[in-house]
Amino acid sequence: MPPSELSKKITVENRAIGSDQRPLLIAEVSANHDKDLDHALALVDVAADAGWDCLKLQTYNADTLTMRSDHSSMKIDPIWGTDNLYNLYKNACMPMEFHAPLFAKARDRGLMPFTSIYDPRDLDFIENLGCPIYKIASFEMTFDDLLKCVAQTGKPIILSTGMATLAEIAHALEILDKNGAGPTILLHCCSSYPASLESINLNAMLAMGTHFNNLVGFSDHTIGTIAPLTAIAMGAVAIEKHYTSDPTRDGPDHRFSATPDIMKKIANGVDDIMKLRGSSKKGSGQEELVNKAIGRRSAFASKDLPKGTIITRDDLRFIRPNAGIPANDVSGVLGKTLCRPILKGHPITYSDISGI
For residue 6, is pLDDT > 60? Predict the structure, then answer.
């Protein structure tokens, strides 16, 4: 990422999000509520117990996404539990009355709740929930009317970019900017369910961040932990992942969603990765100082040298440890006059030359 990217940071509800912060972990309920409020509330506990930061819902119904039609384009793969697009969304959508109790429980468990919005007509409803940040799904990022209305809230936006070209992303960002949006985080994504590791192309996440000078994260649809943890190691500021309490449950999204165990492994792995990432500063680490003193070469007298000796190559060797003039400062010792005697096998230091 470019240097300016390293200093970028946004704050949402006192939670800093940036390249030098612990990545924001977003637990995506998606359709895994199963239209059962008690089950959906239990999923809040799964996310909180696993150590994630946010609970994300999806706000839509079948009529906000599509319409009833017998046109051939409405046919879908029966793996989704139906062969018709309208019926898929009818089966998968979360009842509107679930939002308020899920937002409340999320906050009780220390999670930041927010939602993906799909239709401008739902904005007032979501605003009344106190939604602190909005997610625009990959499928909706070319829906200019939606981008405009969400931007006008002035709130931060997470924009998922699955299937998108750079030109489409640039257009979406322009719409958001012209309409007063808050800061935007771009999520790299492969919109395949589940996505193969070969399809992920995490280098594109970094390229996108550089191209737009924007904070970037990763929306993960793979099975397992390696893709999100690798994205974090590469600098993702946010990770979004679908999750479930049981991947064998009926429903369109359970089969590719993370189990509670996977969610815990990702959260635990984040802490280790952040230790590994460290800071952008390069220098001698505290744990290296002992070995730096022992292992680096420096000037030692190869014979007894009286005071007044003008030092030549025959008078010294550059050996370990690093107790004398360092081996990369040859000119700082050769041709210099000793102001005190040096015994064979003792270091030659700057003070032996300067007299300080």
Answer: no
